[in-house]
Amino acid sequence: MSPGRVLDAPSYRKTAMDNKLLLADDEEGIRKVLGIYLADSGFEVLTAENGLQALDIFREERPSIVLTDLRMPGVDGLELLRTIKSERPDTEVIMITGHGDMDLAIESLKLEATDFVTKPINDDVLAIALKRAQERIAMRRELRGYTENLENRVRQQAARLVETERLAAIGQALEGISSAFRDMAGEVEGGVRFFNEMPCFVSIHDRDLKVLAVNPLYRERLGDRVGGRSWEVYEERKDPTLTCPVGRTFASGQAQRSRETLVYSDGRRWPAMVHTVPIRTSAGELQLVLEFAIDFSEVERLRQELQATQDRLASLGLMLSSVSHGVKGILTALDAGVYLAESGLRKNRMDQAQEGLGTIKEMVERVRRVVLDVLYFAKERALEVKRVKVADFAAGLLALASPKIRRHSIELATETAVTAGEFEVDEGIAAPALLNILENAVDACVEDRTKPAHRITFRVHGEGDLVIFEIEDDGIGMSADTREKIFNLFFSSKSKTGTGLGLFIAQQVVRQHGGSIEVDSKPGRGSCFRVHWPRVLPKNDPGLPAGDSTA
Fold this sequence. Notes:
By secondary structure, the protein is of the alpha/beta class. It is built from 15 helices and 19 strands.
């Protein structure tokens, strides 16, 4: 080790786990010298002479910091880093590298390494790297504490709010019903006004078993039976004056509850649950009967609406989880880009700085796409369709995609037929949808390192009432299983940088316009997306909300 300052040991003694450090290096001399130095600095040092031994110690001892050489026999430093991050992502890993391993060091940063130091190891550089690791550990611990405290407070406040709202609702309901019952004893019309908004069939009956008033839903489904007999809304029965719910209530003086079959005004018959409530005068005399009939089909409709709402909330929860995962990957890549740019500027290496700047630009664009996808998914809006020239639309789309394609040195071939003509389209959502497919083609080419060069072909032509967009690449391709799932919500094949929204939304946009997408792909040979877009928006679904997953 080269001369430098001694680490301030007390600043590292946060917890017993924070003090535990694993040192992996195949050179015994480095392990010995670094081990003494780190122990003097307040760490409990564990040492391993190779990657396999390091993994065994890591899994048993669970150190919070790992200091590992990049080049080791068997399991090297990068493979060790990948395994550690997959098993315990919060572990801080600092890489030790030689001057000739800069590319591998940068690769390790992309794999979420905390930092790297070069041999011969300078005390000051190592001190900075260890301090950064400890600060990240402390920040995560504090954030975890804040989060847990916030979650507890939110749960407590939510519980109080729910209880308050529940009690208020019960109080309002009891007061409202009590008030209605009192009013109905002296004023039938006032009671009916109270029940006009109730989502069931409500009627009021007198001692002669005549219908005095009904609510709007009753009148809409069962007909205007005011003045008719109380039993006429049910299927025919023997001795209806005693067997209908209202008749039984007057006979017994008690509330009734029974399953009945209602006859709708159009002759249809539906099962219902009927409740009756006796209404008495101030002297206790039974004067009126309030009848509630709940159509089971209406209950099922409300249940389905509730289920749809719950499904939507579940989807939003999955979306937040998926987006958080994708943004985390993007931020990691941004860190690497910033590091490359800053390092290149410090060392006056413009090629490295440009590479870092390119990474930053690409990640910022991905953040923009994620935000647009989230806005599309969360907010419904009607299509804003206008008629445009297909060639102009295609040119605008390629202008958006070309910078990323050129940045990765991918050849772009375009074929726009003069017969493409015009079509009706909401450009605000259609362009991002097709751009998503184009950028996926770029990603597929970048990920494929088996070929010296790659090519993306963009074709547009007309076929009768359709406009056909073809986006073909010679990238990594897809397996049959992946091809079947690519349009599923939250499915992503991009590891940490994908949200699983892009292709799902692209398909929804195309379907909204009455179109469809076909995919042909084979592993190692590339993919071809064919988008069939109607020239005229189908008239059966005008103004379908954007974001409606049933499109």
